[in-house]
Design goal:
- The protein is mainly beta.
- It is built from no helices and 22 strands.
- The strands form four sheets. A seven-stranded mixed β-sheet has the order 1-20-17-22-15-13-14, with no helix packed on it.
- β2 (about 10-15) and β3 (about 20) form a beta hairpin.
- The protein is globular.
- The relative contact order is 0.19.
Amino acid sequence: MISIQRANERYSADHGWLKSNFSFSFADYYDPEYVQFGPMRVLNDDSIAATEGFGMHPHREMEIVTIVLSGRLEHKDSLGNRAETTWGGIQRMSAGTGVFHSEYNISEDEQLDLLQMWFLPNVKGVTPSYETTEFDKDGLADALVPVASSRGVEGKVASLHQDMTIYLSDPSAGKPLTYSQLGGRKVFLFVLEGDVSVNGEVELSRRDAARIEDVPELTIVSKDGARIVLIDLP
């Protein structure tokens, strides 16, 4: 089964300094059809104005992964961590028993665009932790590159307390990208840029999403080139 959520079907919020699109119920927005997908609980597509951001606030019992699409993100937390992340970097925070953090656009004149994703952990009560990792931006061409995972995969991959893997890829025009997984698992596919078709059945455009269940073999093709996020979930 493949369920589609078009970009314009997401909930949008405009706070001036922050423009957000929610793929799942979040904050004051609630839709019973979009509460979670497996352990995936949040995907916020945010644009943050220069020098603005989120002040110190708490989290617990959540795996939080941020992909910076453009601009510069500064993270600070109650564990004493401070880090800057740009495109090519991933930040992962395991909130565990509880942590406070802030997220700011530290540019004086450039907008910050990012994806923030939350996942329910498969174990509770872990000690909070934070890390940043980097991936090979050039290596995304026609390959599914793992950027966060609970599995032992090669490369500098952010670790997760959940049986899942997040991949990034830049499929070239007309070149099929294939993905196989065990039965009973799920795939969340999100198109960052461009267009793709899935198994010759479904057409997705920029910022469209597909929730895929009981389809263990996927063939993804782009007409003109694309950038995607593919998440393998239990």
